[in-house]
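User: Sequence in, structure out. Go.
Assistant: Echoing your sequence, followed by the structure tokens.
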Amino acid sequence: MGIDGCRGGWVIAFRVDDEIQFETRVDLPSLNDALASEASVMIDMPIGLLSEGGSRQCDALARAQLRPYRSSSVFGVPAREVASCTDYAEANALSRTLSGKGLSKQSFYLFPKIRELDRWLAQPKRKGVWHECHPEVAFARLNGGVALKASKKTEEGRAARLILLRELGDVESALSRGLATYPRKEVLPDDFIDALVCLLTAERTPDRRTVLPHVGPSDDNGLRMEIVAPCF
């Protein structure tokens, strides 16, 4: 299963009888009944948060892999205490206190989903083996280690990414069905594409994946701070 955040909550890419399908869910717990205990789940959202200032090693490695074109797509992941803030000014001030760096409004808008995933992964009845997958890192790996120059929000960028997704099968038809089913106010075209590359990574066996870093450190809740991507 591949998951990406979207305007309507979460967009899910999965396979039924070899056909790729999409669903949207307003929250992650609603997925639990559909998951097997050991289902492989890749999600485009940070897993594992620092307890104080600093940067996650996986994010630094991801930015290095995405230079010079897509390194800005790796947002700074806040400390857990910062992510708990619901007011931007408060979060920005606390971030400066803990790390010496402020927050962009764009990263602050991700906080509700970061909190939701962090809480969900702590639930003892949660099913699935969940990993963080950064779509641009995954596409760079599928592209021989070279970050894609064109943005995923352009026709050129979407076309390049669909070519790299060809091992999934008929992704063009799946994308067409998704666009016809869900309005743009809920899911954007690049949300579907990001969910698809997360699905591709989830379907890869562990020996056909790479992990940044090779052995990621665990946070205070025992969550591994690492980004999983396909091998070349």
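User: And one key feature?
Assistant: The radius of gyration is 17 Å.
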